[in-house]
Amino acid sequence: MTKQEVVFFWFRRDLRLEDNVGLFHALQSKYPVIPLFIFDETILERLPKNDPRVGFIHESLSKIHLKLQETASSLLVLKGKPELVWEALLQEYAIQEVVWNKDYEPNAMQRDAAVTDILQSNGVGVATYKDQVIFEKEEIVKSDGLPYTVYTPFKNKWLEKYKTIAPVIEYDASPYFSNFFKSKFDLLSLEEIGFVPSSIKVKPHNLKLVATYHETRDFPALDSTSYLSPHLRFGTVSVRKLVNWAVRKNDVFLSELIWREFFMQILYHFPKVQNKNFKSAYDGIQWRNDESDFKRWCEGRTGYPMVDAGMRQLNETGYMHNRVRMVVASFLCKHLLIEWQWGEAYFAEKLLDYEMASNVGNWQWAAGTGCDAAPYFRVFNPEIQQKKFDEKGIYIRQWVKEFDLGYDQPMVDHAMARDRAIATYKAGILK
């Protein structure tokens, strides 16, 4: 029996049909296009069975599947190790080309290289496209070709280059939806993937709140953030649409999108930062790494209301306000002298918007060990942060129910912890 000649488009961190660069190009093919998503067992086996991010991915895939059914097509969803999945698909179809959007995390790049080898060794073409960032790899570098390691000059170069292409082209693939492979694939259920629904849900994003982002972003009680970050992480929104919008509406929000790309480029050029200090001079710091202290931090029982509110919000919802993230991260690294990798791993487990580049970048910023980081002697005072950004305790009372009933004493004195942190850093930084 003759195999069907097809092109595959492989969804990964781009779970949308709108303004999807790789999908747009795949649909230009003379062959019908099978849209595919692979639940990667190497990732799933590390997650709890009620992981809300898996539920969100499945929900997003369901929306794509329903939309494709309007074109007499459907989404092929498989589970397994990607290399083995592709080897099986090669047996079933006469695959002419496989198209996907690039991912820049070290593990993803290794996976993609392995899949590329399998496909090309079987005579299958591979085409990859830039989709999750405006500028990638070596597109924003210094005049000598070296990557930027300080944010402000990176941002200035980014803005300068953006002006030459503004507004960024958005890719409307809808006129080509008839090129999808006509199929009636059954969508795997969440249970068939091996997971169960979570009580924690990804919230819809709200761009209207971004217009006043610069005025309200530091005050957690206002709950005025856009909730865009998980949607950016999994690609249910287009970064091109967001940037073109932010350029017109809010410079501060645009700066946050540029920070995201800065950290992505740092991870790409310096992959060691995923688990090692960017500044190797900080490798000599003697961290306390007390497991009981870490447990209290994780559970939001430090005796510092803003720290505890942030950790409880994270544990209960998968979200934490950005200002509070800085406070809790600084507290772990400076007050408790626990290595940033411990906190980074806990955030990776809990955050709905977990993205390696930003998570590692921000944790190293808080610890002082990263590029363009806060200096080691900058130690946030949680009580001052509370007075400045939640003076009436509205945010704290939302998450720390016992706040007015005689709250726990702080587990560590701020002045002592600050002096200890500075002394430990001084003694540990390698000359």
TrEMBL record:
InterPro entries xrefs: Crypto/Photolyase_FAD-like_sf, Crypto/Photolyase_N_sf, Cryptochr/Photolyase_FAD-bd, Cryptochrome/DNA_photolyase_1, DNA_photolyase_1_CS_C, DNA_photolyase_N, Rossmann-like_a/b/a_fold
Location of the Photolyase/cryptochrome alpha/beta domain: 5-134
Gene3D superfamilies on file: 1.25.40.80, DNA Cyclobutane Dipyrimidine Photolyase, subunit A, domain 3, HUPs
Cofactor: FAD; (6R)-5,10-methylene-5,6,7,8-tetrahydrofolate
SUPFAM superfamilies: Cryptochrome/photolyase FAD-binding domain, Cryptochrome/photolyase, N-terminal domain
Pfam short name (any one): DNA_photolyase
Family: Belongs to the DNA photolyase family.
Designated name of the protein: Deoxyribodipyrimidine photo-lyase
Designated gene of the protein: phrB1
